[in-house]
Amino acid sequence: SIYWISQADCQADDKFIFPVVLSGFSSDVSVEVWAGESGVDCSNVDNRTTATQKCWKVSATYNPSQGFTPEIVVPARTILARDLTNAAASATPGADVCTNSTYSDSRNGVPIVLSFLPIQGVSSSIAGIAFTKVRIDLGGPDAPAKLELGVGENRLSLSWGQVTTGDITGYQFFCDPPPG
Amino acid sequence: AQTITLTETSVRRSE
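Structure tokens for the assembled complex are given below, as produced in the milestone run.
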């Protein structure tokens, strides 16, 4: 199953909650979740370093002790914000990311990989696990263009151009009669 | 070594 992030999810400030089991963690190792577009390896520290950053941090930094079972929270808006400017971005994005961000026009499901990484020290990491089932789809399809109305006997016939900018489930047409 | 275990069926959403 795919975990979609829709415009309504963003407006509602939806959050993913991942219960995880951690083992073998020493006190100097923490857990962070980083997001990247499909094909980018967020376990590579170069992709998490400001100058060359391709991944962005989407969770708090968790400092588990041995045997601790945390629930890791990843706000959808933090994924959508795609904040590459600060490796430790902590601000909670507002609703403006729903309509004014890298992904606010996405219509076809941008695949996002969430990497759960054990972080030790400033710049190192070892391979964590990847959650690959998040997709972003904030925008609906465009309205059809080239709508034409033809006259038939006792009916009107509509024709229109196919819409290709999104996942189409159907078309609905409404008549807007003049006042009176 | 550190291991992280995530069970997909346990993933929840806040809504």
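Chain B has no helices and two strands. The longest strand of chain B covers residues 3-6. Further analysis is deferred to the final report.
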